[in-house]
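Lab notebook, page 48
Experiment: co-folding of the full assembly
Goal: obtain a model of how the components sit together before planning crosslinking
Operator: M.T.
Materials (sequences as entered):
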Amino acid sequence: MRASRLAVKTMLAGSGIAVLAFVVAIGAPGASAQVRPYTPPTSVSGGGRGAIGALLPSDVEIRAEATERLAKYKPDPVKYPVPRTKWDGKPDFSGVYWSDATITRPALPLESLYRPDVREYREAGGTVKGLIDWRNGVETTGLHCWPPSPMSGSMSIITIQLVSSPGFLVMLNEGGGQFRIIPIVGGNERPQGAPHKPSFLGSSVGHWEGETLVVEVTNFNGKPWLGGGRGSQLPQTSSDALRIVERWSRPDGQTFDYEATVEDTKMLTAPWTGPVRRRALLPYDMIQESPCALDSELYARHLEYAAAEAARKKGASVR
Amino acid sequence: MSGRAIAGLGAVVVAAGLLVGFRQATRGNETAEGIAASGGSSAQTPWGESNLMGVWKAEALGARSGRDTFNLTTLEGLYKPEARARMRKLSANDDPTLRCTAPAFPRAAMSGHRLQIIQSPGFAFVFTEAYPVARIIPTTGRPHTSGKYLFPTYLGDSTGRWEGNTLVVDVTSFNGEGWLAGGVDKPTRASTGVWLTSDALHVVERWRRGGVDTLEYQARVEDPQMLTARWETPTVTFKRQAVDRIEEALCLPEDDPATYLTRLGS
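Observation: model returned without errors.
Model output:
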């Protein structure tokens, strides 16, 4: 429990360096033998401002500094009024957001709610068994071009652009190029049109409760990891029973707040309410194109996996 | 003109406006579900731009099996000799989209995949169902992103302006790695299915509503390093789809193994 709590805290702090240090300390046992290995490129890393910080002008914040500043920041809606849309007068979320801070911590770590009987499933990486060799301490879902769930990345680390539009909130991710289109409906309306295919990001439908946009997300494909999957921490897998209820609000014109409650009866013993995370605006109005490209070794592994899956499905249909 | 005449004219305009409004409301009710859900069918956004919002789909176009529906025979004839020499060394299997890189417009407009347009004051966003890529198009006519902050990309840097009800989008800063058509597009006997571009690619697109439930798209393509003259695409007509959003499409081989592997083998 102690270890998992540490890991969850580490995840929340979002510090890759700390996680990496954790992996080195614990070791990476049990890497599956049959998976095509992955050799990561040499990357820039280091503590404090480190090697990345050294590349930046001294007045440019690194992420840890921005997080610290945001954590201390007191939203000021008088000085920075919440912008409102021209069509319904509701808070306008449009903008590019980067730094992130945890405003309230969850009562329990998510890890503590995982059912013991799904341990083996989690070890294997869930639905996509063996595709991600998470034990090697390098591979993450993001490296495999999976879209980040709000818990695993969209509310931390990566730069996002939010767009308020009549009937929609849209979230664009700079790291990976994925996007989320959230239709907003009136009080008792349901989303319209044909039902969607189950997906990584699920089907979202939002409605306003006063000044808060409440978004219910269902129809997931059973693949997303909500966190974990590094070092000794098991992947926090989800199932097709995953349901997330999000609360989006704007404390002032510089920030937005996000909180999510997660239910998954196949994985968790009880619903989990995550931290309130705050993100702050950057002085830009659009992000850059940055599509996800699989590393060639990982791409080869995906192809092998797909071929095995296709053969398995063919075999199953012949029988 | 007398004040009275002006007042009379005003009344006619108001009456006509009411009629048009009524007709649109009626039309809206017929397919209210999808239209309301995908951004509304009203001709204008609340901030007064032409409303291009919705989920849209056109027929798949191109030149499969020699039948050219995208003016690709003309494009093929425009390639310079040195470009042809480079292209002869490649094959249809080198099509970068087979490796999950995003096709830029206008190629993306002939894929037959659905697209979705979202607008906000000062911006239009184009999302396609083929690849998880979003185009961000400023619509205020501002200059291209400064080279100081820009790196070339598959989709290029877009900036748009309104000419009446037409959104005219200028696209530059391509990375020169995308293709203008697919490996399967072979309009003539001599076709190799290779359609290279350079980083000098320059695209000017015209997006406009054709009617309540149609969207029209046309593009002009220049690439002085590859082509001897500019190439014009035909006008592509998209039809409104009664859904609130496009599907997630990540281009991961394991998501739909059979389809992916077949495509790769083509």
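Interpretation: Chain B has one domain: 52-265.
Next step: discuss with group before ordering constructs.
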